[in-house]
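Re: beginner question about structure tokens

> Can someone show what the tokenized structure looks like for a real chain? I only ever see the sequence side.

Sure, here's an example I had lying around. Input first:
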Amino acid sequence: MKIVLASNNRGKLAELQAMFAPLGVELVRQADLGVGEAEEPFRTFVENALAKARFASAHTGLPALADDAGMCVDAFGGLPGVDTAYYCTQFGYEKSDANNVRALLEQLQGVANRRAAMVSTLVAVRSPQDPEPLIAVGRVVGEITTEPRGANGFGFDPVMFIPEFGQTFAELPVEVKNAHSHRGRSAAQMLALMRERWLA
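And the corresponding structure tokens:
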């Protein structure tokens, strides 16, 4: 089965492709099919992921999978949330993973509560009008370190410390991170849902 991935993020594509391989599903980036980015006007991960999935399916005629993910910091009332990718731009930095990490560490200086969750919401639709989208949510709670550690992963991985491993996501081997990350958890749920609803 070929499914369009409603994202142009190569890191997400590589992670999700590895996770969906057991289903015999081929994920194709929407950019490779000439599809631009959907608008994401909503304040929740699930609404944005659904909008992206419907948009990608409408423009390709294929079933679509969309991921909306972000960092939810307790001290900021759950923000940056859906604005995670552009977090640093509100502080005058150019959009990049490194600048996002830098801005987050600056904003948390002197803050005692460094608890945060990384959330991944996956939504899959069979068609643009699918009345029963598949929805899977993965969540990992950890603490924001005071400086980046590790060279694996992307996004906030170098500052997301996971107590059960005693390391940041960026310090973990890729296969361990993929199995236990927010995206790993949502992908595992999504695989089960697809097997049960779409491939049975």
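Each token stands for a local structural state, so reading them left to right follows the chain. The beta strands are 2-5, 26-29, 64-73, 115-125, 134-144, 160-162, 167-168.
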